[in-house]
């Protein structure tokens, strides 16, 4: 049985993929990285990662492939040409999506002889590898038991069931809660502003420590300016919000109860347009 000495390949070097690879490198893991557009691996290579020039090459270099891309479509597009290399291997998907997408991906990969664990990252790039970070996993329990120590450096491993859709389901539900919290924070800022409070002091000394790591991606500035830092790519956030809304539709949950999600989506699109 393989242990935490397993060689890990990371497919996708967005803000999150880079954070995952960095945490694994810091723990001494052997890491190979791949990204569609070249030029994102330099810092990781300087820290000891190997860069693969193709998806197949990255998969061939590892015992475990970890995928962290924009969305389900990009995962399918990336993996389809490399199914032969994946056969007989193990893959963990940490890309956000719906429960249906995770179940269908599990079926597709299982049909090609791939052992698969679905994941949902409960962290943002700067908190990957810290005490607060945890990762939801769903799929076969024996596979989780084998991989949990391997992936421990990125965050605490938390298994949520055999159904491959559950990690995505809980991830999306938790994200919905997070964006709802942001809508509440926007209201808080508006309230302080309307009553003549010092908005900047309130944000810095009260709201920021209160809402901790969720604040930067969910709260608009008092003057309506978008304040989305680079590591929270607003285009990715917009896709994530669209995913939550479509996943709600798929589950039959009325989206008119989720006005805060549409409000956050509107803000992220505005931030994209402003870049
Ligand atoms: N960053 C965060 O705060 C959240 C925290 C919770 C989990 N999410 C999910 O993680 C996935 C990746 O997010 P990210 O932050 O890395 O996103 P980006 O920085 O925008 O990077 C996107 C990567 O996806 C690649 N990509 C996009 N489309 C394709 C495609 N058709 N084929 C292959 N790769 C594709 C992109 O590659 P490139 O544009 O650089 O070539 C980036 O590697 C995401 O599911 C979040 O919901 C992050």
From TrEMBL:
One Pfam family recorded for the sequence: NAD_binding_2
Superkingdom, taxonomy of origin: Bacteria
Ranges of residues in domain NADPH-dependent reductive aminase-like C-terminal: 163-268
Domain 6-phosphogluconate dehydrogenase NADP-binding: 8-157
Signal peptide as annotated in the record: none
Listed transmembrane segments: none
Keywords: Oxidoreductase
InterPro entries the record matches: 6PGD_dom2 (IPR013328), 6PGDH_NADP-bd (IPR006115), HIBADH-related (IPR015815), HIBADH-related_NP60_sf (IPR051265), NAD(P)-bd_dom_sf (IPR036291), RedAm-like_C (IPR048666)
Keyword Oxidoreductase appears in the UniProt entry: yes
Coiled coil regions in record: none
Family the UniProt entry places it in: Belongs to the HIBADH-related family.
Protein name: NAD(P)-binding domain-containing protein
